[in-house]
Specification:
mainly alpha; 6 helices; globular; two-stranded antiparallel ribbon; about 5% strand
Length: about 190
């Protein structure tokens, strides 16, 4: 393995980046109040929106890479992961630096951005044949289980340890991020 020569007093670029992100995550946004979540300001509001998708005759679809059903399954996997644990976690250095910084930025903005067709690391494949109402019911069950849960939560795969209010906000922002690709179809 070739060692990268270090000039005395000069840190490698990666160390500077990681140190900067870590300081941002741990203190740079410490005085910021959480931003208002753009679409779902409350857990109940998010749940009601998902409930509407579970109704017979719902005319919603996804205009993204995933079908509506696949997106809802992905969201359910995320909520389920906060309770039972995610299949694969990012390394500790990531959750303590990049992940914590991303979470702090999302909290401050009240919204998250991420690739909307990126599966959770190690998650089971999404079932393209599952009807959207069944996927919505799975998500509702996961949301209800999360709401009723009083014990410790599993570490987030990218953000690390979160308390319940922070986890709820993360789930609301995640749902809102995917919701932007949902649209109601019109009857001809």
């Amino acid at each position: 393995m070739n060692a990268i020569p270090l000039t005395p007093g000069v840190l490698p670029r990666r160390r500077v980046l990681v140190a900067g992100l870590a300081s941002l995550a741990t203190g740079g946004l410490a005085g910021c109040a959480p931003g208002r979540i753009e679409r779902f300001a409350t857990w109940a509001e998010a749940r009601n929106a998902v409930f509407a998708l579970a109704q017979p005759g719902s005319r919603w679809r996804s205009n993204g890479h995933w079908s509506l059903s696949q997106a809802l399954q992905h969201l359910a996997q995320s909520v389920e992961g906060s309770l039972a644990g995610y299949p694969r976690l990012k390394p500790a250095w990531f959750t303590h630096t990049v992940g914590a910084a991303a979470h702090a930025v999302f909290e401050a903005r009240g919204r998250m951005t991420h690739p909307l067709d990126e599966p959770l690391p190690g998650a089971a494949p999404l079932d393209a044949a599952l009807p959207p109402d069944a996927a919505a019911l799975r998500l509702l069950r996961a949301m209800d289980a999360f709401e009723a849960h009083d014990g410790a939560l599993a570490p987030h795969f990218a953000y690390g340890v979160l308390d319940k209010p922070a986890y709820a906000r993360a789930h609301q922002m995640h749902l809102a991020a995917h919701w932007q690709q949902f649209e109601e179809t019109r009857l001809a």
